[in-house]
Amino acid sequence: MSELSTQQCEACHVDAPKVSEEELHQLMSQLPDWVPEVRDGIMMLERVYKFKNYKLAWAFANKVSELAEEEFHHPAILLEWGKVTVTWWTHAIKGLHKNDFICAAKTDQLL
Ligand SMILES: C[C@H](O)[C@H](O)[C@H]1CNC2=NC(N)=NC(=O)C2=N1
Questions:
Q1: What is the C-alpha to C-alpha distance for residues 87 and 109, in angstroms, rounded to an integer?
Q2: Stated pTM of the model
Q3: Mean pLDDT over residues 17-22, rounded?
Q4: I need a surface site. Which of 75, 78, 90, 103 has the fewest CB within 10 A?
Q5: What is the ipTM of this complex?
Q6: 100 belongs to a structural domain
Q7: For a substitution probing ligand 1, which of 13, 74, 97 has the most ligand atoms within 8 Å of its CB?
Q8: Ligand 1 geometric centre to CA of 80 (Å)
C-alpha cells in the first residue's frame, strides 16, 4: 500500500465507513507520533507539536489550515505559545475515516 501521505482524501458522506479495529491498528502503526483519543464518544487522532515560540507555532497552524482547505477535510487546531495540538476526525460519521489518517500523515509532512 502506498504511503499515507501520498494518498488523497475522498469526499466524505454520512454513510462512509469508519475504520475497523484492525484497520485502526494497521494505520496507527504508520503514525507513531499520533494517539487515538475518544471524546464525547467520538474517536479522534491527536498529536501535539512543540515549537520554540508562538510565531513558529502560529506559522505551522496556518500551514495546517491551508492543508485542510486543499483536502476539504478540517481538523481542530489548538494554537498555544510553543505548541500546536492537531486533532483529526470525520464530523460526518462521528469517528475516524481513512481520510483522517491520510491528513495526519500530510500534517507531519508540513514540519
Ligand atoms: C459540511 C461539512 O462540514 C463538509 O462537507 C466537510 C468539511 N470538512 C470536514 N472535515 C472533517 N474533519 N469532517 C467532515 O465531515 C467534514 N465535512
A1: 16
A2: 0.95
A3: 94
A4: 78
A5: 0.93
A6: yes
A7: 74
A8: 24
3-class DSSP state of 5: helix
66 Cα to the center of ligand 1, angstroms = 15
Q: Is residue 28 part of a domain?
A: yes
Q: Which grid coordinates belong to 63? A: 500551514
Question: How many A from CA of 93 to the centre of ligand 1?
Answer: 10
In angstroms, rounded to a whole number, what is the distance separating the alpha carbons of residues 8 and 106? Answer: 10
Task: Work out the percent of the chain whose per-residue pLDDT is above 90.
Answer: 92
Query: pLDDT tens-digit profile of 75-110?
Result: 999 999 999 999 999 999 999 999 999 999 999 999
State which ligand 1 atom lies nearest to the alpha carbon of 12.
Answer: 15
**Residues flanking ligand 1, CB < 6 Å:** 12, 72-74, 89-92
| β-pairing verdict for 83-88 and 42-50 | antiparallel
β-pairing, 35-39 with 76-80? unpaired
Task: Count the domains in the chain.
Answer: 1
Find the domain containing 84 and state its range.
Answer: 19-109
